[in-house]
Amino acid sequence: MTLLTIHMSSSARWGLYLAVDLGGTNFRVCSVQLNGDTTFNLTFNKVAIPKELMVAKTARELFSFLADQIEEFLRAHHEEHFVETKKQMTGPSSARDPFRLGFTFSFPVNQVGINKGKLIRWTKGFDIPDAIGEDVCGLLQEAIDRLGLPVKVAALVNDTVGTLMARAYTSTEGSQPILGAIFGTGTNGAYLEKLSKIRKPLDGTYDKSTGEMVINTEWGSFDNQLNVLPTTRWDAALDESTVNRGVQKFEKRVSGMFLGEIVRLATLDMMKDESVSLFRDANSSFNDWKSTTNVSPQSGLLKPWGLDSSIMSVAAADNTPELSTLRQELESALDIFAPSLEDAQSFKAVANAVGRRAARLSAVAIAAIVLQSGKLDGPDKEVVDIGVDGSLVEHYPFFRDMIYEALKAIDGIGPEGAERIRIGIAKDGSGVGAALIALVAAKMESETDFEYKAKAETSWFE
Ligand code: GLC
């Protein structure tokens, strides 16, 4: 079975697509040139999403900001094409051919068409109540139209689905991924399932001919009842302080947005404990003789959400006997002055425990999909490929190693199974995936609109 084949006649319009990505700390706008031969060229711009827009009063504020970024990007990177397309848009309708845009919107959505989906709930710190239940492509298209941009929102994609697509497109060995997963600000996975196994009623229009469908699992909300997830008092405290209390419990133990806060809460409790001498050395044997450890009242350690998860990467990467990089980082990032070696060791132990737990839980989610796919049961010992993306897998040292270590210990996988699982980064997955789906969407539009489509054939999931 080929997971994703987009094969076209030579006249098919591989080409330039826009992709935007909303779902983490940054908003990314990219243009992707799909060359049709597993390669692509990507230009992108990213801006941090202003915190106040994540909890804006109205969806219109957030989506207007997104449309502004799209306009800026087009003017900066595709000025000529932009002006030309804009001119065309005011000409006869037969000549109109706007930029096609794939919208990677990485929140739970009830998707009812290729460019239509209603927001179920926000995650990852976003909270704009009037967007719930709305078609997010419609919201973006309206904002684009308010600016008069020649852009059509052609496809709606979750980042995990984009990652799965991108991994399939860039695969040069013919082996197709069984899972696209994100371990970044949030966590989630998408995989291919047989329609016969899907019990949930499906609304909307979809192609039944392949007998399969991509499922966005939204595993971030696995076990919100906490039947099996490990729980500490810091997990409970963290959940209380989020805008989406009571949900995304798996995500809150696994993904980058939350790990730093768990470390902070645990560290703070240790500091408050009189019997523990964390960050209060007057004269540690390993410390400089004159320096007294001192935590500034401004320290991020003392402020809710004040500890960025990235310091966990520094802690994991520093294996020097003096932990000098980590000690410097404690000072520069957290205003903890002259931390002793023992302080740094304790911090590292806490951070590593939180990071390792996240990796082991990630392995559980991956293993569930691998087992569900039945791929390990086949006689031919083929590679089971998984495409991943996100800051944790990319930047947290040893994250993938820890996942493999855990996979080996899982029933039904074991060391032999783990050996056959290949977890590979699908770099820029969501951008490329969104562009690919925008391309497919363009093919699905009425043939009278776009002459080129008559010559193209697209097949999904053969
Ligand atoms: C959150 C979102 C999900 C997304 C994931 C990774 O879990 O709900 O849709 O895929 O984050 O970005």
TrEMBL record:
<dbReference type="GO" id="GO:0006006">
    <property type="term" value="P:glucose metabolic process"/>
</dbReference>
<dbReference type="GO" id="GO:0005829">
    <property type="term" value="C:cytosol"/>
</dbReference>
<dbReference type="InterPro" id="IPR043129">
    <property type="entry name" value="ATPase_NBD"/>
</dbReference>
<dbReference type="GO" id="GO:0006096">
    <property type="term" value="P:glycolytic process"/>
</dbReference>
<dbReference type="GO" id="GO:0008865">
    <property type="term" value="F:fructokinase activity"/>
</dbReference>
<dbReference type="GO" id="GO:0005536">
    <property type="term" value="F:D-glucose binding"/>
</dbReference>
<keyword id="KW-0067">ATP-binding</keyword>
<dbReference type="GO" id="GO:0005739">
    <property type="term" value="C:mitochondrion"/>
</dbReference>
<protein>
    <recommendedName>
        <fullName>Phosphotransferase</fullName>
        <ecNumber>2.7.1.-</ecNumber>
    </recommendedName>
</protein>
<dbReference type="GO" id="GO:0005524">
    <property type="term" value="F:ATP binding"/>
</dbReference>
<keyword id="KW-0418">Kinase</keyword>
<dbReference type="InterPro" id="IPR022673">
    <property type="entry name" value="Hexokinase_C"/>
</dbReference>
<feature type="domain" description="Hexokinase N-terminal">
    <location>
        <begin position="14"/>
        <end position="169"/>
    </location>
</feature>
<dbReference type="GO" id="GO:0004340">
    <property type="term" value="F:glucokinase activity"/>
</dbReference>
<feature type="domain" description="Hexokinase C-terminal">
    <location>
        <begin position="179"/>
        <end position="440"/>
    </location>
</feature>
<dbReference type="InterPro" id="IPR001312">
    <property type="entry name" value="Hexokinase"/>
</dbReference>
<dbReference type="InterPro" id="IPR019807">
    <property type="entry name" value="Hexokinase_BS"/>
</dbReference>
<keyword id="KW-0808">Transferase</keyword>
<dbReference type="GO" id="GO:0001678">
    <property type="term" value="P:intracellular glucose homeostasis"/>
</dbReference>
<comment type="pathway">
    <text>Carbohydrate degradation; glycolysis; D-glyceraldehyde 3-phosphate and glycerone phosphate from D-glucose: step 1/4.</text>
</comment>
<comment type="similarity">
    <text>Belongs to the hexokinase family.</text>
</comment>
<keyword id="KW-0547">Nucleotide-binding</keyword>
<keyword id="KW-0324">Glycolysis</keyword>
<dbReference type="Pfam" id="PF03727">
    <property type="entry name" value="Hexokinase_2"/>
</dbReference>
<dbReference type="InterPro" id="IPR022672">
    <property type="entry name" value="Hexokinase_N"/>
</dbReference>
<dbReference type="Pfam" id="PF00349">
    <property type="entry name" value="Hexokinase_1"/>
</dbReference>
